[in-house]
Amino acid sequence: MEIDDRDVLRRFFSPEGRLLTMPTRHLKRRVVLDHVAQRFELGRVYPEREVDAILKEIHDDHAALRRYLVDDGFLTRRDNHYWRSGGTVEI
């Protein structure tokens, strides 16, 4: 089944860019997580508190959102530092 990424983003994000709820279907969740991952620069390492600050702008449960990003391979974590390791890249 093919999904329209724009429809998914409109459904799960407010017009202000806040995540309203996390999709339960994995395919839709990956669209949401890819969108969130775009907030992180490729090649840059972020301390945990900076990751949390970025994610708090998007969703109140920033810890769960951070966990989803790591579990689905959008961010990699080592020694309380994170870097973007997945998601789409604009050329």
Considering the chains and any ligands shown, give keywords for the structure.
single chain; 91 residues; alpha+beta; 4 helices; 43% helix; globular
Can you describe this structure?
The protein is α+β, with helices and mostly antiparallel strands and 91 residues long. It has one domain (5-84). 43% of the residues lie in helices and 12% in strands. The chain has four helices and three strands; from the N terminus they run ααβααββ. The chain has a three-stranded antiparallel beta sheet with strand order 1-3-2. It is globular. The N and C termini lie far apart (27 Å). The model has no long low-confidence stretch (mean pLDDT 95).
Please describe the topology of this protein.
Blueprint: H1 5-12, H2 26-37, E1 45-47, H3 48-56, H4 62-71, E2 75-78, E3 81-84
Antiparallel strand pairs: 1-3, 2-3
Helix pairs in contact: 1-2, 3-4
Largest sheet: 3 strands, antiparallel
What is the helical fraction, as a range of percent? Answer: 40-55%
Helix/strand/pairing class, anyone?
alpha+beta
Beta strand count: 3
Model regions low in confidence, pLDDT < 50 over at least 5 residues:
none
Radius of gyration: 13 Å
How much is the average pLDDT?
95
Question: Number of helical runs?
Answer: 4
* Range of strand content: 5-15%
> How many angstroms does the end-to-end distance come to?
27 Å
| Arrangement of strands in the largest sheet | 1-3-2
Shape: globular
Q: Tell me the domain tally.
A: 1
The SSE string, one letter per element, is HHEHHEE
